[in-house]
Model the fold of this input.
Amino acid sequence: MKKIIVIGCPGAGKSCFSRRLRDKYNLPLYYLDMMWHLPDRTNVTREEFAKKLEEILKIDSWIIDGNYISTMEMRLKYCDTVFLLDYPLDVCLDGARRRIGTKREDMPWMEETFDEEFKQWILDFPEKQLPRVYHLLQQYKEGKEIHIFKTREEADKYLDE
Done:
């Protein structure tokens, strides 16, 4: 387990899970949100984002936290381990709400409100994003260790073992 991706619905706790993995396995951790977003709430170009990601993928070991379905296939080709946090919608909505007003190492700014567009993205995730995620996991499963957790308790148990 040297090249790990952590994916799942926004608010599921991917970044917290990733930090615990980092601490347990002593691997460098990269947040896609930090690569994509700028402190002024704008974004880098898709080309810049892909270039940064390609540079990371060439490194010997890493944890990459984030969905970004447009680059998921690229990450799946390079990783040896996948953690999918496939939690119920209410858990993800609650997780996103709870981090409002909290400074985080995985975002270049502090969220001050629960943005309606972001909330809708979470609400749409199970129907619009998750089927594609599962399809890609099926497509790239060979030679991969894939862990799918349906509850925080399952993820915590894995990390505690």
